[in-house]
Write a structure and sequence with these properties.
Blueprint: H1 3-20, H2 27-50, E1 65-66, E2 69-70, H3 75-90
Helix pairs in contact: 1-3, 2-3
C-alpha cells in the first residue's frame, strides 16, 4: 500500500466526519491551527528527513517533495486539527 493511498483513506474518513458535523465545528480556529501545523511540519519534517532520522521507501511515495519531506508527510498535519475538533465536539457534555 502506498503512502498516498493510506493518506487518502485516512483523510477521507476525517473529511466525512467533518462534513457530518459541519455546522457544529469552529472552522476559523481549525483553519488557523491547520496553517500553523503545516508550517511547523514543513520545518521539522525537513530536518528529520534531511538528517536521515526518518527515511521513506521511494517506491511508496509520489516523488513530490517540499524540501526533503514527501508531500504525503503533510496529511496528518492537515487532518489533526479537524480530528481533534471533532473529538472535542463529540465528547462535550450536554447541559
Amino acid at each position: 500500500m502506498t503512502y498516498l493511498l493510506l493518506n487518502s483513506l485516512f483523510l477521507g474518513a476525517v473529511a466525512v466526519a467533518g462534513l457530518l458535523l459541519i455546522k457544529r465545528l469552529p472552522w476559523k480556529p481549525i483553519g488557523l491551527a491547520t496553517l500553523a501545523l503545516v508550517a511547523m511540519t514543513a520545518v521539522f519534517d525537513n530536518i528529520i528527513v534531511g538528517t536521515g532520522i526518518v527515511a521513506y521507501d521511494e517506491a511508496l511515495i509520489t516523488g513530490i517533495k517540499i524540501g526533503y519531506a514527501p508531500i504525503e508527510d503533510f496529511a496528518y498535519a492537515l487532518a489533526a486539527p479537524l480530528l481533534l475538533s471533532i473529538a472535542a465536539e463529540l465528547t462535550k457534555r450536554q447541559k
